[in-house]
Every structure is written in C-alpha cells, then in structure tokens.
C-alpha cells in the first residue's frame, strides 16, 4: 500500500482502500488523532514517518489482520480493553453474558469467570458491580497479564488465578460461574475465515466436538456453586439445545437460553440444585 507524504487527512480518509470505519480507526491510530481531530485537522498534511506508519498498518489490514490487534484496543461494555494475539477479541455478542450475570448476581455476590482471556467479562462485571467479589481464571499466563492490565486500566477489582479450569480453586465456592469457553468444533470452516485466523486457536476450539469445555464446566461447577447459584455460558449458534440437555442431565434447575441481538440463542444457563 503506497501512502505518500504531503497527502491531507481528508484525502486519506476518502482514499484508503478499506471500509470507512476502518480507514478512520487506522488514521486516528497512525496520526495520534481523535475522531474530532480528523475533522478539525482535515487539511493537515502527513509527514514521511506518518506515511510509512499508516502504509504499514493498512497493509496489515489488507492481509486480514483484525483491526483490534493492529491498534491493540477494543471497546467492550463501554470500556476500553487492551488486546493482543494472546487473547480473543471481545465481541458485542458476549455483552449478553455480562448483562445476564449482572441481572442474576446477588448483592455482595462472588462470581467466577472461567477462561477469562482479556478479562472482558470479569472486568465489565467488577466495574459495574463494585460490591461483587470477582475471580477470573485462565490457563494462559499471557492472557492473565493482559487481563491484569485491563483490570487496572478500568479501575476494576478482579482476583486473577492461573488455572486449568477448576484445578487451582479446590474448595472455593461462588454465587455464580460465568464462561465464554472454546466452543467451535474441530475442522469448522469458520476457523480458517476472517478474524478467527489470527486469534488463539485454543481459545476458539476444543479441538473436538465443540462441547468438551462446556461439559467440564457443567460437570464441575456444582462443586463450586452455592445452592441455587447460577452457571451462565456463552456457546455456538447451534449448541443451545445440547447445552440445555447437558445442564438438565447434571441436575441444574431453571435451565434456559437467551438470545443475542441477532436473535440467536447465545447464552444458556441454569441454577445449581
């Protein structure tokens, strides 16, 4: 991608070969401008260094790298999160899980976020509910480092634990368990498409039928939930019925699924008996 020094901000915004929103995001990032700055400095011309920086960013996007990884940030639940290729990019669909958690979490409630990644779910809950005691675990030290930074940036009090699912929290109990685990089946075509090509595969797929992580969580959560405590899990667009069946087989009550903004059953949960 050839970006020439001396071009104006306005000309670049109109002429870059990306979607208008992506043009704006990369321009702001490369030039250190706000969205307002793009307007007020529209006739500003860019330097050689800025041209080279912008060209490199556009080239990365043209090769398919997600915008969130290029700029290192993504908004989620109204908060700013740092993201790297060590963690999944937070998505609007997952805000449904946060909303449900906030609606079902009792005052002074203790909540466990399993497989926290960037910390998006745990930080959003802790930021909104200052009374809650939020614990977040992940098997990846790199992910936990990102989650720790995001908790600090957003002023959220989150306890972070390195753990392979329930391994490191023996004997601990919570009022709620939430999770957005790997749920894409091995060989699913989506894994080789779009942003997913760049995201950590272990956070996307269980390298099996897409349900193995969900089975582990469903089987193990009753040992860590107070009676009547909620387990809420995000899952794939076609997995709701299977997840409801697994919950019922393990004795959960009030089992239900909730639809995202696209009308897809995206979160399923139940209460521990």
From TrEMBL:
- Name the catalysed reactions: L-glutaminyl-[peptide chain release factor] + S-adenosyl-L-methionine = N(5)-methyl-L-glutaminyl-[peptide chain release factor] + S-adenosyl-L-homocysteine + H(+)
Pfam families per UniProt: MTS, PrmC_N
Q: Name one GO biological process term.
A: methylation
Q: Which residues form the Release factor glutamine methyltransferase N-terminal domain?
A: 13-72
**InterPro entries registered for this protein in UniProt:** DNA_methylase_N6_adenine_CS (IPR002052), HemK-like (IPR004556), N5-glutamine_MTase (IPR050320), PrmC_N (IPR040758), RF_methyltr_PrmC (IPR019874), SAM-dependent_MTases_sf (IPR029063), Small_mtfrase_dom (IPR007848)
Q: Which residues form a coiled coil?
A: none
Q: Which residues bind S-adenosyl-L-methionine?
A: 115-119, 138, 165, 180
Matches recorded under PROSITE patterns? N6_MTASE
Record keywords? Methyltransferase, S-adenosyl-L-methionine, Transferase
Named from the GO MF annotations, one term is:
peptide chain release factor N(5)-glutamine methyltransferase activity
Domain Methyltransferase small: where? 95-189
Q: What EC number(s) would the UniProt record show?
A: 2.1.1.297
Q: Where does substrate bind?
A: 180-183
| Function as written in the Swiss-Prot or TrEMBL entry | Methylates the class 1 translation termination release factors RF1/PrfA and RF2/PrfB on the glutamine residue of the universally conserved GGQ motif.
- Spell out the family assignment given in the record's similarity comment: Belongs to the protein N5-glutamine methyltransferase family. PrmC subfamily.
Protein name in UniProt: Release factor glutamine methyltransferase
Q: What is the lineage of its organism?
A: Bacteria, Pseudomonadati, Pseudomonadota, Betaproteobacteria, Burkholderiales
């Amino acid at each position: 991608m050839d970006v020439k020094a001396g071009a104006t901000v306005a000309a670049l915004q109109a002429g870059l070969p990306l979607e208008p929103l992506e043009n704006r995001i990369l321009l702001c990032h490369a030039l250190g401008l706000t969205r307002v700055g793009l307007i007020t400095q529209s006739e500003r011309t860019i330097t050689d260094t800025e041209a080279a920086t912008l060209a490199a960013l556009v080239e990365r996007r043209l090769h398919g790298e997600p915008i969130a990884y290029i700029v290192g940030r993504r908004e989620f639940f109204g908060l700013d999160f740092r993201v790297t290729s060590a963690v999944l990019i937070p998505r609007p669909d997952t805000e449904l899980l946060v909303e449900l958690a906030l609606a079902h979490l009792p005052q002074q409630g203790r909540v466990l976020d399993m497989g926290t990644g960037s910390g998006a779910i745990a930080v959003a809950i802790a930021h909104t509910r200052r009374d809650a005691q939020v614990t977040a675990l992940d098997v990846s030290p790199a992910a936990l480092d990102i989650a720790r930074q995001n908790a600090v940036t957003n002023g959220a009090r989150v306890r972070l634990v390195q753990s392979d699912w329930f391994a490191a929290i023996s004997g601990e109990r919570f009022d709620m368990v939430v999770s957005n685990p790997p749920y894409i089946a091995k060989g699913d075509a989506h894994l080789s498409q779009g942003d997913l090509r760049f995201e950590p595969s272990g956070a996307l797929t269980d390298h099996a039928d897409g349900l193995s992580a969900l089975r582990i969580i469903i089987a193990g959560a009753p040992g860590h939930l107070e009676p009547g405590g909620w387990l809420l899990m995000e899952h794939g667009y076609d997995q709701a019925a299977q997840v409801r069946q697994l919950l019922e087989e393990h004795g959960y009550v009030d089992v239900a699924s909730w639809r995202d903004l696209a009308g897809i059953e995206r979160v399923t949960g139940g209460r521990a008996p």
